[in-house]
Amino acid sequence: MLNRLLLAAAPTLVGKKVAKEVTVRIDGEPTKNKAIIVNGVTYAPVREIGESSGYDVSYSGSVVDLESTTKGVPGLEVPGFDDTVRTEQIAQRDKAIEVHEAEIARLQQGIDYNVQMYAEIPMYRDTGLKYQDTDSYKETVERIKVLDAKIVELQKEIEQLRIK
Q1: Rg for the chain (alpha carbons), in Å?
Q2: Rounded CA separation 101/144 (Å)
Q3: Helical H runs in the chain?
Q4: Distance between CA 121 and CA 63 in Å, rounded?
């Protein structure tokens, strides 16, 4: 992570020729200051890039300091963790929850349909047999419980990803 940029560590640019100026865009918007290319290396406006990336930028002596503005804010700073990957993991879990919820809805519709049919079909109605007494019903209810448990687990995983 960016912590300190030591200017002394870079070769001196004093007296070097600027080969080209280039535009720097952050989220599609050009920065106020352009970057320059010297000896094939691009040097960009540290303050604009740093501040737009969530850093406080300061300069003292020969040192430019970048300090994270998200230090200590839960869910905003995760050293070494790529936010893009985390966002994708959350999206995948959200999609899995949607799939499980759709399956639960389909299973519940099947239960509702069979309960109604058992109540209407004379063979079942006259004997007093109810769909809720069948192995099929018990298996379907068990499948719904398993899916509900998976949803709860996925929701916990999402919560953990969001607080990291």
Answers
A1: 30
A2: 9
A3: 46-52, 83-120, 122-127, 135-163
A4: 84
Residue 97: which residues within 8 A CB-CB, separation 6 or more?
A: 151, 154, 155
Q: What are phi and psi of 3, to 5 degrees?
A: -120, -50
Q: What confidence tens digit (pLDDT) does each residue in 143-153 have?
A: 999 999 999 99
Q: What is the mean pLDDT of residues 27-54?
A: 82
Q: Is the pTM of this model over 0.85?
A: no
Digit-coded pLDDT (tens) for 45-97: 888 887 777 778 887 877 888 787 655 555 555 454 467 788 888 999 999 99
Amino acid letter, 149:
A
3-state DSSP assignment of residue 14: coil
10 Å CB burial of residue 47 (0-12, 13-18, 19+) is middle
Inter-residue contact 46 to 64 (CB < 8 Å): yes
Dihedral of the alpha carbons of 13, 15, 20, 25, in degrees to the nearest 10:
40
**Separation between Cα atoms, residue 145 and residue 29, nearest integer Å:** 49
Place of tokens 């691009």: 42
